[in-house]
Specification:
single chain; alpha+beta; L,D-transpeptidase catalytic domain-like; 2 domains; four-stranded mixed beta sheet; 6 helices
Length: 229
């Protein structure tokens, strides 16, 4: 990466030098309307040569800034999510550490594919979209989509969520720890091999439940002890 930046900086300097030479040649072709001594000409030209043309000075400054700009940290943790196989492969550097079963979005709620970077984490989060459903050890990587724990471990290995990526409680805790240890900027999430179902679906809600106060509604009984959406 640094070699690419230095290469760009070098090209900028060369372009500026070429432009400066063209300006010098143009000025050489102009007729001389005054006559001055050779010593006076040298005195006038040498400072300009030492300072360089404005374009060259700008290119040098830009090149220095590019060369000294901090580079992003290297990716040391990769989370490769295979939606077809319903597996996530956890890789540190070049070493595969874990391969875990997952539950991604079910039909009508497909998990979005692409390459992402984790945005934030929460040891415990409650889904604002799905009636405050608990999401332990959440790692959010695409707006409201996150890795998180579920107690519906019997569904792992098949599509069962509303878009998030479910893991067993133990594996979600390990993943949460790994991401925080490596850092968000050094972690990459790759989600691929999705099916053809639509990625966005209309959310069904219970309005009377939503309108009740938090104290009145408490945990929704129909969900039982199942975590994760």
């Amino acid at each position: 990466m640094k070699s690419v930046v230095l290469g760009i900086a070098a090209v900028l300097v060369v372009m500026a030098q070429t432009a400066a030479r063209a300006e010098d040649q143009k000025s050489d072709n102009l007729p001389q309307v005054t006559t001055v001594s050779a010593e006076a000409q040298d005195a006038a030209v040498k400072p300009a040569e030492s300072e360089g043309s404005p374009a060259l000075q700008t290119a040098v400054v830009l090149a220095n800034e590019l060369a000294t700009a901090p580079l992003p940290p290297p990716i040391t943790l990769t989370l490769d999510v295979d939606l077809r196989a319903q597996r996530v492969t956890v890789q540190e550097g070049e070493t595969v550490k874990y391969v875990w079963p997952i539950s991604s979005g079910m039909q009508g709620y497909a998990t979005q594919t692409g390459t992402f970077q984790p945005q934030w984490t929460a040891r415990m989060w409650y889904s604002r979209q799905w009636d405050m459903a608990p999401m332990p050890h959440s790692v959010f990587f695409n707006r409201g989509t996150a890795f998180h724990a579920t107690t519906a471990t019997g569904s792992l290995g098949s599509r069962a969520s509303h878009g998030c990526i479910r893991l067993s409680p133990a594996n979600a805790a390990k993943l949460y720890g790994l991401v925080n240890r490596h850092g968000l900027a050094s972690t990459k999430v790759i989600v691929h091999n999705a099916g053809k179902e639509p990625e966005v679906a209309r959310r069904k809600t219970n309005r009377s439940y939503q309108q009740a106060s938090a104290r009145q509604r408490g945990p929704r009984p129909s969900y039982g002890s199942v975590w994760g959406f």
